[in-house]
């Protein structure tokens, strides 16, 4: 949303939806523009795989290869089936055009959960099925993990949505970026807060938090087993409409692709 529209909507604060001040002069949308634009050099090629074929978990994986060498970034949507921001943005990212490296996207990771509009699928919460030191605990988790090992990502981004705000609402983790120690978590928080969070929504500023990485979550496992730089991104639906959640998620993914060298935009790092 453009600033002009935010100002025009200034009197509608009591509504259910408060939109982000997208497109401020401070920038931040350059990465997203670069993600959607044709690659800087050569053509990208896209391969589609089917994960867990002939099972209820059957779901597509998209591998988008840039002509230039670079890291492999793997993006997950729909690990929780009722968190649409990640599903929508991962579907979109499947048609983005990285300038370098490889972008691997699974938009509907727990497809049963997505179809049922539930957090968990047939074996419950997929994001608790990756115990340290053990095998993944469900058929779906094993199939997803096999794909992760095959693509051997340098970076893993898992997209989520919470019901409240981390540090404001007890037990909720929205507007937070949990990340491995080697990640650009703080840079992402700064970029998002600068580019996307309106001044009148200070509680919605993103918080970066280095995770201990010793839990049963997919991004923990990617860090432990593959030494991937790993992120778990959480927006919130507290006072936000769906499109605002989607937009902030979109920006986060694009900024991380930029930080990790897949996009030629913004300031060099
Ligand atoms: Zn989630």
Structural description of this entry:
30% of the residues lie in helices and 20% in strands. It is built from 8 helices and 8 strands, in the order ααβββαβααββαβαβα. The chain has helices at residues 3-8, 30-36, 84-93, 111-116, 139-151, 185-195, 218-226, 242-259, and strands at residues 45-51, 59-65, 68-76, 100-106, 155-162, 176-179, 207-210, 229-236. An 8-stranded mixed sheet has the order 1-2-4-3-5-8-6-7, sandwiched between helices. Strand 6 (176-179), helix 6 and strand 7 (207-210) form a beta-alpha-beta unit. Helix 2 (30-36) packs across helix 8 (242-259) and helix 3 crosses helix 8. The longest helix has 18 residues, at 242-259. It is globular. Residues 1-27 have low confidence and may be disordered. Zinc ion (ZN) binds at residues 80, 83, 160. Zinc ion (ZN) binds next to loops.
In short:
The chain is an alpha/beta fold. The chain contains 8 helices and 8 strands.
What separation lies between the terminal Cα atoms?
Answer: 28 Å
Biggest sheet overview: 8 strands, mixed
Based on CA atoms alone, the radius of gyration comes out at 18 Å
Strand/helix succession: HHEEEHEHHEEHEHEH
Helix content: 25-40%
Count of DSSP H/I helices: 8
Query: What gross morphology would you assign?
Result: globular
Main structural class: alpha/beta
Q: What is bound: which ligands?
A: zinc ion
